[in-house]
Predict the 3D structure of the following.
Amino acid sequence: MPKIVDHDVQRVTFAEAAMRLIARHGIEGVTMRAVAAEAGLSYGSLFHYFESKDDLLMHAVRHLTSQQTQRVNDYESQYSGLKALEHLLVDDAIVSESSRDSWTVWLTFQYKVALDTSFAEMHAELVRGWLDRIIGLLNEAKAAGEISGDIDTEFEAMAVWAYSAGVGQLGLLHPDSMSPSLQKRLISSYLDRLCEN
């Protein structure tokens, strides 16, 4: 009887193998043959799912962001407004031992975004979704009286996104001076100042 292959599982297996290799060696040190070996699957089977290393990196980033989205969805099913926003920012920005590999993959992706139109288009799509989510949470906070009704939530969402992206990048690049606890304090301080306006 022929073996039944779950193609979605195979894609995830290859994507996670690529992420581990990127975290260890950077994108330059990742080859399709190395990804197949890391995944414990055949080199030929990899090309049934991905045409190139770029295609694989895009899928890995989509897998990464879908995992994050699920975590945030689970939290937002219980909380709203600023509490949910703080959780989103902590999940998105804070670099710790457990999230360092994910951040390395994301930074590798951003490098490609600066050089390649197809990566830039995907990045714009992901960022737009994230900004819409932040706007929604800020609007919830405004409706609940947590922040001033005068705050322009679209502008503030852009500021929040830029701030949290900076916190995360510094946490990855300067772990000794930007500890996870300091990153969290910076995010909390930002949200506290929103409440004062």
